[in-house]
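Re-run with default settings, no changes from the original entry. Doing this only to confirm the output is reproducible before filing.
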Amino acid sequence: MSLDILFLIVLFGTLMLGYPVALTLGGVSILFALVGSMMGAFDLALLLTLPSRLFGVLTNSVLVSIPLFVFMGLVLERSNIARDMLDAAARLFANLRGGLPISVMFVGAVMAASTGIVGASVVTLGLLALPGLLRNAVPPQLAGGTVAAAGTLGQIIPPSIVLIVLGDQMSNAWQKMQLDAGEFAPETVSVADLFAGTLLPGLLIVVLFIVYLLWKSPAADGSDAVTQDAPDASDMRHPLLAFLPPVLLIFAVLGSILIGLATPSEAAAIGAVGALALARRRLNWAALNSLLQDSVHLIAMIFLIVIGASVFSLVFRGLGGEETITAMLSQLPGGTYGALIIVMLMIFALGFFLDFLEISLVVVPLVAPILLAMPMADGASMSPVWLGVLIAINLQTSFLTPPFGLSLFYLRSVAPVEITTLSLYRGVIPFIFLQIIALIIVMAWPSLATFLPQFLYGQ
């Protein structure tokens, strides 16, 4: 067994044992760099490039937007805006079969487009909506699955933290593929391209979820309350007014990115200021201080993983791993589509044990440049936006797949006793299959991912 393959096996095995991700990525990589040097398979001089690589990571204009988007999401989570939207949606869908579960899914989609943080969405919906669903005779299995699935929409609907990280990785992979092909003035692919590319697939997933809820939910009972402290009708002159502030914030942030008025980092700043404006009467100084501390902890964790992944990438390439992966994928039956399907199956399987950051920062840089260099049936290169959207949909399943699905952990921590772990696992299975169906549809019709970027940006 070659040293680069052994490196991957040891790394993934160590990650699955539960050791800290960032320290594992960096520590195992340095260990194999030393072993490779002693065996004559790695040049330690490559490690001298680490400072410049890390400086490039920390000054990356795309990644700079992550702290502000994290802060914006946490502000909206703590400001009870979600509660108002849930109660308003419950009123809107009160007379519809499955009205309460559908209202949760609808609010989950709006929260996804305004916060972009899966953990915050799942916890908020779990605390606010789950008790109300159970009170209104929604089966525990369906209630738990609905809340977990609604929370994961923050992964596929922009402005998602996952899409920002994935967009940066796809941009690097696309430029590397072109440089390797001898194109020294490479075209670029941006986070805005990926944001536009995921809008239609994200809407498709929401529609599939709602159709399933229409089928599985009990008949409408006319209930119009999903939270126990729902406001009286006199306090809400019209249910749609509860959606107006977050929808305006969505248009300000996402709209400014898509039409090219602002970069992701500039739009994130707009979003952070806008979120504070919406929450100005809902947060006191103590709550704001706690929110800032939580933001710093989450941001530090993300960037520490990014740094560890950068060390891994350098060592793996230095051990000749890129050539090994290229040879393996190029020899698979079925050509480009065969290699793409195998990669999708691999990412799906890894999602049972690893989280989205680990897969985005470890697996995607290895396979994306190789797939992008493989010709499609018409001889053209694979669309980086299409590939990025497929990976994003696939990564969304990792939040729901047991035993280590993050949404399952988040929801389990706040779920009432009526929701057992087993019923939660069973409840998310249909939503996982629906995500797989969406993945197959987008794989079969790439225009679902490429139409909006081509319409908006001509690429």
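The chain has one domain: 3-35+64-457. The longest helix spans residues 285-318.
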